[in-house]
Amino acid sequence: MAVPNAIFRALHGTLDAPDIKTNPKGWWTAMDNHTIKRYSPDASLPSHPHRNQRNAYYDNLLNEDVLLECVSTRRITASSQLQYSPEDAFEDQWTVLTPEEQEKHFLEAFAVNERSSNYLQFTLGKADCPELNRDVLFADNGGGFIELMGRCVLPDNNVVPAQPMIVESERFDNIIEYKENDTIKTRAAVCMMARMTRTAYIVNFVFATLASVKGHTITYQVFTTEHSKTKSTLKAHSQMIDAIMGGKSAGKAFRKAEAKRRKDMGLFCQHCLKAEEKEKNGKMTVCSRCRKLGREIRYCGRDCQLADWKQHKLQCGKPLDASLVLDDVYVQGSERIIGGRPDIPPCPPGHRRSPHVIRLIEDLETCPLKDYLTEFTALDFGSAALDEVPGAAVFMHMRNILFTSTGPGAEGALMYVYRVLQNFSDERRLQQQLQREYGMDLWKRMKAMVKTAPGPMYWAPDVSRADMEEMIGHLKGTPRFTEELAGYTKGQGDIMMLGITVGPNKDVAAKVEFPREAAPAAASLLPSNTKKAVGANAKGPNFCIPDPEDHPEDGFIHANYCNLGDQIKYLQMNPEADYMIWGHPSSPNLPMALNFFQKEDVLGFIHHRYCLFRYGPFNIDSLAYIFMALRPVLQRKKIPEAVLLRQLEREYSAGYVKIARAQIYRREDGKEVYKRRLDGKEYELARIPAKKDVLVEVMYQVAESGRFEEFGMVKRGILDHFKA
């Protein structure tokens, strides 16, 4: 059970705020003042109970009861975020309200939040949400609230989130001592809960405001996993409570109120997340094995318990670990693959799978969006899910060779799988796992293949079109690549020959017959160089930035609409980057370098980038191309569409981005197209018109950079001939 909220209010000095029930405007003003003090960039970091603590502090904080509540809270939060979807017409409805009317809805939302919040062990609610300050929400006639609402909506409500959505705040991350890829799991888990709880406060406020505008009254149900330990926990903290609340009488009154508050929290079904209704349906059943550990896992009945078993068996009757607060969440509906794993073939006659492979397949059935599971400990595992269609499809094919055969070619498939998994697992543990799963004989054959290879490259078995279409068909049946495969139809279109290389040193390759319709632009998103400038003699398109052009006759002045200083600065620090991207979860404050792999994608993208840099967003064709090219790539890299839109709006102005976005839609055949408003013509991405002279110039610049060997013979004079 969490330490009572009012204690944290007292410790952090926020008890001076008036009662929100009797003086809501005064409460908001007081909490805004606290927020301004805490989030002033010139002020030192305010205190926080979880910062600068020894490891033992986090271990003690995350006991079994707290861990179970944290895991459940993350699941409930992720499930709730799927329900948030404002109507398209809301923006028009909101902006016609007077400031007084908007304020009324804001205050009602705050009241709902404060009645139902259970957050102060991790965050101070409103005091940790500068996004909810009065001046922010009322900015631009209430447009500040519309902008915040856009940050609180999932990019696709048809896809169950693997992690609860986070509203990022660098200052808050510093306050709680959040570290990306923190090796101390308990501290990382506490920070994850703090970031998620702050986000939940903001998201709940936004949608309570929406409900108020619609005339609906909502109450957020706060859930807990148990009621039985409330009194004993409060009693154990009685001396501390008395001291903080100012005496035994006040402490007793607080404990009584807190016990009632906890009793009012709902119990819920672990599978469907429905609340227990004892008066209507009686008490829910409780897992007997977990109850022996003092843990209460409830179910509506036998059906929910059986449906949840594949997931629950991983922790049933076992000690909980802090990594559960960091793992992907499981929400009913996230298993979109019906009938287990149709992408995994049955065991063929005559082949014997090891018990370790059988266990791996059973565990993969509980993680339908993962391609492989790598072992960490006896009770925990990591997962691998590739984020490009070709990479995922080829890996699944190689994995299935290992699941069905130890014959010729299996050693090449094992080398391929091994090299891919080196990016996801500890080396020693990975080798031991693969040796157990596929046997020492096959492992030795793979090592012998390495020794006898004629060159530095090792070849996995070739992959046919039929093999690829089978795997792509399975991927299309999952929510992983919904957008990329929307227009794909098995058996249609031509193929392209891909040479896919994998491994830390890119020393294992496979020749692949890949359907062109299923081949999205392959790209990497890597940490950028943000410190060292490149020499003055550097060559390539990033050093041939065109001078901007104005169109005064059309009222277009480049400098009034474009803000490309940072983009160009970092492109010239990263010569092979095609675009700099801000907003990745692993680097929220510094840009990442995006690189396309295929020369056709590189030429097309840099051509339209050149046009935007020169002509600005006045060139709607190029702005539409850049958006259509970046969006699917960045979504695979965990960057939502809303984040991309905010960057493009900064660089090319919100008005022009909105115009370009409005001309992009998905046809009935699933293909995304740009329908040019000027003449009504439709273009798929690769068909958006290009300027011949610019394309020739870009080709020369790419050739001069040495990026593609096949461009090595390209000469300026030859290209000038094509220009003419």
Calculate Rg over CA atoms: 28 Å
Strand content: 5-15%
- Tertiary shape: globular
Largest sheet: 3 strands, mixed
Helix tally equals 30
Question: Spans of 5+ residues with little confidence (pLDDT < 50)?
Answer: 1-13, 333-339, 376-381, 713-724
Average pLDDT rating: 82
Strand order of the largest sheet: 5-7-6
State the share of residues found in helices, binned by percent: 40-55%
How does this structure look, described?
With 724 residues, the chain is mainly α. The protein is 47% helix and 7% strand. It contains 30 helices and 13 strands. The strands form 5 sheets. A 3-stranded mixed β-sheet has the order 5-7-6.
Essential attributes:
724 residues; 3-stranded mixed beta sheet; 30 helices; 47% helix; disordered N terminus
Please summarize what this structure is.
This protein is mainly alpha-helical. It is 47% helix and 7% strand.
